[in-house]
């Protein structure tokens, strides 16, 4: 099914539908066109065509209460008629396409051309070949067989090019495959709650069929289209389809349309599923995207990868927004989407964004400035520098060789240029050209993109085992640089298993669960009803799965704690709920971050109303004017009583780290009926029933994980909606704050007061005064969290720019997760909205998994540095040997094919070996690198140059006096096509041996002594080193002419290995030299303040940069293309949102994320602002700090 195109899939569904339409009371086409109506139009249409939603249920043979019977044949039939809830993915690239892409590499193309010319010339025997007068440089007479073998070099180069291409293509292909596996895993993990045969069950999203009754609740991402049939206070964020950021209130009689891909922001309810898969609103957009994307690619092969997808998406979306989709004829709109030009789509967009023209400019700017992750920025820069150096070297090599030859032949020996000699000369020139290209090939580290992708892909795979599901590849590496983590409290630092441990009922403060007999019966009845009715009916406490385990808590954890309290009082909540089913609730005010409370109104038998309320104690108590006494009678509750209660009951509970919840109620007369929409009047004059203290114990592994973070130089801050005393108590238990330290604990209000000026605008300087000491932010709203994260990221207050990770689980954490450098969403407790905005999903909701992510991130960074250290040593040596050899002896001691072999083994295998080093705990003992630390540190530079000196010294010794040492013929100044000499074979072999042993040295980059430490923990490394060694033996002994090798004796082999072993000894010598003495060593690959290149320069260097970028990004593009695929719809659309989320969408759409933009926005060098900040008084008086 996966390889069907969307349109085939669609037409197949059409055919099915026309044949089966009669079995149900409505066809797929009817339902589909119904779902395209909005608001009142839809209500009118339902009334006219069907009567009401119940009637549609009957036609679809389902019950609004019991749901579908759930029998297999029935479900199958529904899938056949109405389609499956699954959108066929875009076809993956075939292996041949990937081979073709790999062939686009510039250096490979140059090599191919050189090899083909060389081949052509070797088969062309001109009449002048025998002419002695042609070229003296040809030297000794060749025998016939040798001349015949001239083609071998060209063929060997072509063969090695084919190897390189196949390896690259295979890598890309396996990456794409891995990515698809990851994607399907993400899809399988998404489950949804439906009612089948009267039972509430969770099924995978793909199993949902038309006619299912689904339960929707706060934080869900709707998986299919449907009609709202019952529920309360349901508000939906439809911006992902309409671009309108206002939340839409749904009700059965005004707007019952629920659309796939939209987010539930508040409330709960039930919906009847009416369209799934390609027929749902999201599916229709995807179908258009599929069509539009292919069209774009055909039109413009050179378009930037991201641009094509986003244009297609925008055009599809634009046509959707304009309402062209209303005709329900997808084929027509597909062609509209195709015709609509990318540019037109671009212009349409800003209208939807709040910032108008400004947004348009920003979008255009982002076209040629793709944001890069920190690592990629550094790598691109390095690759461009190396590429330039390589080009210069190879050009000089070719020029010197050509000049030397022409001067020697035509000037010194005064030979005339005879026409019959031309082919011979051309052959020489081709040989020189090949040597030049070889120098270039060795100079450019092609293995770099490979090393990056391998180490990232490897890490991502392994991180799965550590409960980190990585959604954006580069998040993995950014995490290694994190300097701050802003964590949620509930569920991340704590177990999210709420239990009531203290209660204040009937004027008594119980320190443990009270005895049921000590509570007045009236109070007890009110308490049980208030808790059972005024909570989501989806929240339940189920018996434990295993003997002796704790009962399972399903649904909202705070409510579970309260229901558990009812059970602890030896009462039961089920009978109360069955007496007052959800359909009978008169009105529900659901919990949201503004109200911080939840209330439910019911109609009593005598027609009057009663409202039960529960919520944060300080908020609900303010609205109470009475409280139940010991006899169960209400007594007056004055403000001063309230203050006393706060002091005597609530603060002591909070200081024990308990969350305090107040339960209250209020009675209303039957007439006149209150105005339920006037919330302020309704939620007032309550009577307090009780206040409970709910404990959410700290996860046992958290304090240790936080200690590791602090040791690794990462500051952990807690951002929570809880009371400040509770938050402080938990923070001390976790070890986020230690008594007696100078830190800040603020409430959201106070935080806002301190960071805003008189006009109420947020000022960065004010944030800079607060964040370095802030450890706990309590009673914070989602905007506070976003403000804090943005403030820390934008801050230039410290010399190291901050890299911030954020954890979140609620829908309201979306903006902060998007803004952060790395967003972690909770896999179990997290809502779909949070997961959508995140970069990494913690599958076990555990803070200690974040520490694992830091470890892996640092490991990726180190692996790439290890590879660079190794690779650059090879490059420096090979380039200098080829260059000086060519200039002095007119022939590179390392032949083109040998160089390619060195490049292949050194690049591909070394990147595999060094990139798969497992992380160790020691990685957590150093400080984070931060944004502006160079990729190649001084120590690494010392190692690279030190080893290069050793290798060059030995190779030149062998080159010029080697024949005397080994008593063999000299290989220098050999004629064209002469047989391979033992002399040059020894040089080649020694070179490879030195690289092999240096690969072991490269395992350590911080100047450690023991390079063998943990080597057996990495079987891949050992296998590769031994494997390379074995292949080298084969090449030298049996490689013959193609590899320009002649077999060596055992003693010669021993010498080669001995010189190689010297590398390890020399490594120890280098480690002894203190780096601090070597001030002259430059660091390379540093991200400077202004990362973005002005446009004029951009146009000049565009060729080189493109080449380096393409080198680097070939691998990543596939990953990102795939990742974009999962997200395209959400993002395309987020682009229409305003402000922060608009940038968020751009940020995700550009194939890589980074903060280079933030870096560019710095107005002044960080040192200046630092000194200014220091001169202003930053620290608070200790007393204030303690109170805050």
TrEMBL record:
SMART domains: Cation_ATPase_N. One of its GO terms (molecular function) is P-type calcium transporter activity. Residues 47-123 form the Cation-transporting P-type ATPase N-terminal domain. It is a multi-pass membrane protein. GO terms for cellular component: GABA-ergic synapse; glutamatergic synapse; plasma membrane. Its EC number is 7.2.2.10. Keywords: ATP-binding, Calcium, Calcium transport, Calmodulin-binding, Cell membrane, Ion transport, Magnesium, Membrane, Metal-binding, Nucleotide-binding, Phosphoprotein, Synapse, Translocase, Transmembrane, Transmembrane helix, Transport. It comes from the Eukaryota. InterPro entries: ATP_Ca_trans_C (IPR022141), ATPase_P-typ_cation-transptr_C (IPR006068), ATPase_P-typ_cation-transptr_N (IPR004014), ATPase_P-typ_cyto_dom_N (IPR023299), ATPase_P-typ_P_site (IPR018303), ATPase_P-typ_TM_dom_sf (IPR023298), ATPase_P-typ_transduc_dom_A_sf (IPR008250), ATPase_P-type_domA (IPR059000). It holds the Pfam family Cation_ATPase_N. Residues 1-13, 1154-1178 have a biased composition (Polar residues). It catalyses: Ca(2+)(in) + ATP + H2O = Ca(2+)(out) + ADP + phosphate + H(+). The keyword Cytoplasm does not apply. Residues 1-24, 323-372, 1154-1188 are annotated as: Disordered. Gene3D superfamilies: Calcium-transporting ATPase, cytoplasmic domain N, Calcium-transporting ATPase, cytoplasmic transduction domain A, Calcium-transporting ATPase, transmembrane domain, HAD superfamily/HAD-like. It is found in: Cell membrane; Membrane; Synapse. The chain crosses the membrane at residues 98-121, 151-170, 391-412, 432-458, 944-962, 1020-1040, 1052-1073. PROSITE patterns: ATPASE_E1_E2. It is an enzyme of class 7 (translocase). GO terms for biological process: regulation of cardiac conduction; regulation of cytosolic calcium ion concentration. The keyword Translocase applies. SUPFAM superfamilies: Calcium ATPase, transduction domain A, Calcium ATPase, transmembrane domain M, HAD-like, Metal cation-transporting ATPase, ATP-binding domain N. Belongs to the cation transport ATPase (P-type) (TC 3.A.3) family. Type IIB subfamily. Catalyzes the hydrolysis of ATP coupled with the transport of calcium. This is Calcium-transporting ATPase. It comes from Homo sapiens (Human). The lineage of its organism: Eukaryota, Metazoa, Chordata, Craniata, Vertebrata. The gene is ATP2B2.
């Amino acid at each position: 099914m996966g390889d069907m195109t969307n349109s085939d899939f669609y037409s197949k569904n059409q055919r099915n539908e026309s044949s089966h339409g009669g079995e149900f009371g409505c066809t797929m086409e009817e339902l589909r066109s119904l779902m395209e109506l909005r608001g009142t139009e839809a209500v009118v249409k339902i009334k006219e065509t069907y009567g009401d939603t119940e009637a549609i249920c009957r036609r679809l043979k389902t019950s609004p209460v019991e749901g579908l019977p759930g029998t297999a044949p029935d479900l199958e039939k529904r899938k056949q008629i109405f389609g499956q809830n699954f959108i066929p993915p875009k076809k993956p690239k075939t292996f041949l396409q990937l081979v073709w892409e790999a062939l686009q590499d510039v250096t490979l193309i140059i090599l191919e051309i050189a090899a083909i010319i060389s081949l052509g010339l070797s088969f062309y025997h001109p009449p002048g070949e025998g002419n002695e007068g042609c070229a003296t440089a040809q030297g000794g007479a060749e025998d016939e067989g040798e001349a015949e073998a001239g083609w071998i070099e060209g063929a060997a180069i072509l063969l090695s090019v084919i190897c390189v291409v196949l390896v690259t293509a295979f890598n890309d292909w396996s990456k794409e495959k891995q990515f698809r596996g990851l994607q399907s895993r993400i899809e399988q993990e998404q489950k949804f709650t439906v009612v089948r045969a009267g039972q509430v069950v969770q099924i995978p999203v793909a199993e949902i069929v038309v006619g299912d009754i689904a339960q929707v609740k706060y934080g869900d991402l709707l998986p299919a289209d449907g009609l709202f049939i019952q529920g309360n206070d349901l508000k939906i964020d439809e911006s992902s389809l309409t671009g309108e950021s206002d939340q839409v209130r749904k009700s059965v009689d005004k707007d019952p349309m629920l659309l796939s891909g939209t987010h539930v922001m508040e409330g709960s309810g039930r919906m009847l599923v009416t369209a799934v898969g390609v027929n749902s609103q999201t599916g229709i957009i995807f179908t258009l995207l599929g069509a539009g994307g292919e069209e774009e690619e055909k039109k413009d092969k050179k378009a930037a990868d991201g641009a094509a997808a986003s244009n297609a998406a925008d055009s599809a979306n634009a046509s959707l927004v304009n309402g062209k989709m209303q005709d329900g004829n997808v084929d027509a709109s597909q062609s509209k989407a195709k015709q609509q030009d990318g540019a037109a789509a671009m212009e349409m967009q800003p209208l939807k964004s709040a910032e108008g023209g400004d947004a348009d400019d920003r979008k255009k700017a982002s076209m040629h400035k793709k944001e890069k992750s920190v690592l990629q920025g550094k790598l691109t820069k390095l690759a461009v520098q190396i590429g330039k150096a390589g080009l210069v070297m190879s050009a000089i090599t070719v020029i010197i060789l050509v000049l030397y030859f022409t001067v020697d032949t035509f000037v010194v020996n005064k030979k005339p240029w005879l026409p019959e000699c031309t082919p011979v000369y051309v052959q020489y020139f081709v040989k020189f050209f090949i040597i030049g290209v070889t120098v270039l090939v060795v100079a450019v580290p092609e293995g770099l993109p490979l090393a990056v992708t391998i180490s990232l892909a490897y890490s991502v795979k392994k991180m799965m085992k550590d409960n980190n599901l990585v959604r954006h590849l580069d998040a993995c590496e950014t995490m290694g640089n994190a300097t701050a983590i802003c964590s949620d409290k509930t569920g991340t630092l704590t177990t999210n298993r709420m239990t009531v441990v203290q209660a204040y009922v009937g004027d008594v403060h119980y320190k443990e669960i009270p005895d049921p007999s000590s509570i007045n019966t009236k109070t007890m009845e009110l308490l049980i009803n208030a808790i059972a009715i005024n909570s989501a009916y989806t929240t339940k406490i189920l018996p434990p799965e295993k003997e002796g385990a704790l009962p399972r808590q399903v649904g909202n954890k705070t409510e579970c704690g309260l229901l558990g309290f009812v059970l602890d009082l030896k009462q039961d909540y089920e009978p109360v709920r069955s007496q007052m089913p959800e359909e009978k609730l008169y009105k529900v005010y659901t919990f949201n971050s503004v109200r911080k409370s939840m209330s439910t109104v019911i109609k009593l038998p005598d027609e009057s109303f009663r409202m039960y309320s529960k919520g944060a104690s300080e908020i609900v108590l303010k609205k109470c004017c009475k409280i139940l006494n010991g006899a169960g009678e209400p007594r007056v509750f004055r403000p001063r009583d309230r203050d006393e209660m706060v002091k005597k009951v609530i603060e002591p509970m909070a200081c024990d780290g308990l969350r305090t919840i107040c339960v209250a109620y209020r009675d209303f007369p039957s007439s006149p009926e209150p105005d339920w929409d006037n919330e302020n009047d309704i939620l007032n004059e309550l009577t307090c029933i009780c206040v409970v203290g709910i404990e959410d114990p700290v996860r046992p592994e958290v304090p240790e994980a936080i200690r590791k973070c602090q040791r690794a130089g990462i500051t952990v801050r807690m951002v929570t909606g809880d009371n400040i005393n509770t938050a402080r108590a938990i923070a001390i238990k976790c070890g986020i704050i230690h008594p007696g330290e100078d830190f800040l604990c603020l409430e959201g209000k106070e935080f806002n007061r301190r960071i805003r000026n008189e006009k109420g605008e947020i000022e960065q300087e004010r944030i800079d005064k607060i964040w370095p000491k802030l450890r706990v932010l309590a009673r914070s709203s989602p905007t506070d969290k976003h403000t804090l994260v943005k403030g820390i990221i934008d801050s230039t207050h410290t010399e190291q720019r901050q890299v911030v990770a954020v954890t979140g689980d609620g829908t309201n954490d979306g903006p902060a997760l998007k803004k952060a450098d790395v967003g972690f969403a909770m896999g179990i407790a997290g809502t779909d909205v949070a997961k959508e905005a995140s970069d990494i999903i913690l599958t076990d909701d555990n803070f200690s998994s974040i520490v694992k992510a830091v470890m892996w991130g640092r490991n990726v960074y180190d692996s790439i540095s290890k590879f660079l250290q190794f690779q650059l040593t090879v490059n420096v040596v090979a380039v200098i040997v080829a260059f000086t050899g060519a200039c002095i002896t007119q022939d590179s001691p390392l032949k083109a094919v040998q160089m390619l072999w060195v490049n292949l083994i050194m690049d591909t295998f070394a990147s595999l070996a060094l990139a798969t080093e497992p992380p160790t705990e020691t990685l957590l003992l150093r400080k984070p690198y931060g944004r502006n630390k160079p990729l190649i540190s001084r120590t690494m530079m010392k190692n690279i140059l030190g080893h290069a000196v050793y290798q060059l010294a030995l190779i030149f010794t062998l080159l010029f006096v080697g024949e005397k040492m080994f008593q063999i013929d000299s290989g220098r100044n050999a004629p064209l096509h002469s047989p391979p000499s033992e002399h040059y074979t020894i040089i080649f072999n020694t070179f490879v041996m030195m690289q092999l042993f240096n690969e072991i040295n490269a395992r350590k980059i911080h100047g450690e002594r023991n390079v063998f430490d943990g080597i057996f923990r990495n079987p891949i490394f050992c296998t590769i080193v031994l494997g390379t060694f074995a292949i080298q033996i084969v090449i030298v002994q049996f490689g013959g002419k193609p590899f320009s090798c002649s077999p060596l004796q055992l003693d010669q082999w021993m010498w080669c290995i001995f010189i190689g072993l010297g590398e390890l000894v020399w490594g120890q010598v280098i480690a002894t030299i203190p780096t601090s003495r070597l001030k002259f060593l430059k660091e390379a690959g540093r991200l400077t303040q202004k990362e973005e290149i002005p446009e004029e320069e951009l146009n000049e260097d565009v060729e080189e940069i493109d080449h380096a970028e393409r080198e680097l990004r070939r691998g990543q593009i596939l990953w990102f293309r795939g990742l974009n695929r999962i997200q395209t719809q959400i993002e395309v659309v987020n682009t229409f949102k305003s402000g922060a989320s608009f940038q968020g969408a751009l940020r995700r759409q550009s194939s890589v994320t980074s903060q280079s933009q933030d870096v560019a926005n710095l107005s002044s060098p960080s040192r200046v602002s630092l000194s200014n900040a220091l001169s202003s008084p930053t620290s608070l008086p200790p007393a204030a700090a303690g109170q805050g």
